[in-house]
Each structure stands twice: as C-alpha cells, then as structure tokens.
Amino acid sequence: MAKAELTQLKIEYPGLVKETLPNGKLRFRVRVEGSPNRKITIKADPAHNQFQEHYNSARIGIQLPAPSDARPQYVEKSISWLAEAHLDYVNKEVANGLKSPITLKEKIKLYNRLKNYCGEYNVDMPRSEVIRIRDDMAGTPAYADKMMQCIRVLFDWGMERDYCGANPATGIKNIDRGKGGAVVWTRAEVSRYLKHHEAGTAAHTTMMILLCTACRIGDAISLGRDNEFVGDDGVRYLGWQPAKKGSTYVEIPMVPSLHEATRASKIQGGTYLLNKYGRPMKTAGVLGQMFKRWNHQAGIEGKTAHGIRKSVATILADMGFSQYHVMSVLSHTEAQTSEIYTKQVNRRDLAREAMSEFAKIDWNVDHK
Hints:
Layout: H1 3-12, E1 16-20, E2 26-32, E3 35-41, H2 51-59, H3 79-95, H4 101-118, H5 127-136, H6 141-160, H7 187-196, H8 202-213, H9 217-220, E4 228-230, E5 236-240, E6 250-253, H10 256-263, H11 284-297, H12 305-318, H13 323-330, H14 339-344, H15 347-358
Antiparallel strand pairs: 1-2, 2-3, 4-5, 5-6
Helix pairs in contact: 3-4, 5-6, 8-10, 8-12, 12-13, 13-15
C-alpha cells in the first residue's frame, strides 16, 4: 500500500492503524472511540466490500467475525432478512454521518436478540408474537420498550420499501411499570453514598451535581465551567439548556458544596465529569452504568440518577416551597393550573430562593 493511500485512509477512517507483522503480512486495527488505548483488529482489509461495516463496528467496540466470500444467506422475507437489510441501510447512514455509531451498536444488539426470538419467521408475523417477545422481556422493562420501538422502526422502514405489508408492533403498549416511576432517595441513602465516595472522586462529583442541580443524567455529562456565570445580583449561577425536548432554560445558583465538589478533583477539564482518560464522558448510558456500580459499592440498590431529581423536588416541597419554585429548579414548563402565571414569573429568583434553603442541608450527618 502506497504512503499516499495510507494517508488518505487515515483521513477517511480516524483511528485506523496499519501494522506489519513479523511474517510480513499487514494487519489493520482500529482504536475504539473514547478508549484510545483499546484497539480492535478488523478482519476485512480496506479493499474488501465489507470493510466499512467492520470499521464502524470496531469504532464502537465490536469485533465482527472474518467475512466469508458469501454473506450469510437468510430466507427472503424472513425477520432475519429484513433486519440485515435494515442494518446495511443504517451502516450507510453512519458512513455518511447521518446516524451515530452508537445507534448502530444498539441496532446490532437488538436485532441479534430479535433474530434469536423469531429470525426465521415470515415478515408478516402476527401481532401476538410481538406481544410474546415484549412479555418475555418484562423483567427488564426499559429494554423491552427499546425492543418494541426497534421493531416498530424496522417494520416502518420495511413497509416503505414494500418488504412487508403491515407493522405488527403498531399499537402495542410499553411495559406497565406502575405509577411511581423512579424511586426517591432518602436523605440517609444520600449521606451513606457521600460517606463512601470521597470528595475528588467522579462518584462524589456526580452525586453533588445531581443533588445540587436536579439535572437529568443526560445533562450532567455536559455541564462544566463554561456553564458558570455571575448574575447581576453577584451570585454565581449555572445555566444550561436541558436536552429533553420542551424543557426551558435553567439558571440555578451554584451552591458552595457543589462549587467545592467540582474543584476537588485533581484533574480538571472542559466538563466536571471526566472518564479515566481525563476526557468528557460520551453518553448518559455510560454514566448511568457507572452510577449503578457506585451505588452498589455504597450498599445502595434499586436507586437511579432520576430518583435524585425526584428527591430534590420532594425535599423542596417538604420545605414549603411552591410548585413554581420546584418548576424553576427542575426546568418544568407546565403545571396543572396557573400556567400563564408560571411563564411570567422570574424563574431565576425562584430558583435562588429555593436553593438558598436547600444548600443548608448537611449531607455529612446521619439522616433518619
């Protein structure tokens, strides 16, 4: 391979590394995006027609098996056939920058499981079969809901191309998780967590961000010093636009305990939360898994980051603050009543009033 060709490959395929083995043969490896020290060998060279698929998969941490001259043959008009056709389409979207590699990774996992359930079924499978799949996954409701959404998207895509005649997932409800949603943390659990994870650790900083901003975990990974500003009142605030559609812009006082927590880490970066390589965390899913592990280490089970958000709302309500104070802190835009008034009040003032009292809670003492 000429030097000019290799240079062009590195431009078109970031993270691609060519290595010459002792026997003189070439080996191509790909650095996993977000984990520069991890490389995956790809078993298709750049001249192979499946190279793009192997490269995309390796960038998100998946090593595909060596390609054969003949691709796996699926029965035409089967679920496996439809899923593979859609994966080819998504691969092209990723290559053209229209879809995230994370989307591809999720599709591969979901479609592999779908094929295990009903890969040989005809694309005109009955609605009852989709319900059976959902019910079989009821032990993991969030993943079951993802599967239902995935099936809906797959069949909508197939119907547009006349690959199938109907969408069997249309109208099928998500798993009923009850009305409670995320479980609220107790003050005792928060205290136990913070005692176990010392200041300066990512675990401690994460809890303080969630606790002192009531932000969603998807926003926590992007917050940093660029979000800080000093208001006309001389108070230091954090300001950000929540990622969730329909949320209003948040301006909330940066209470002293949060300021201390974000400065306690030896490694500082563009965001408050960094991975082990000192880089911003890529996704909320990664932080969610880490938070679950940190909870387990502190002896806390069954609690999530969203439960912290609900706890803040509960504590503020217990302190006697109005729904408008709570809405200003949690970036809600609608209430059951007085919606017009809510949109007119000064949300920053309400947030400052609420958090000034919230900041007085000492989380280092035992709470019953």
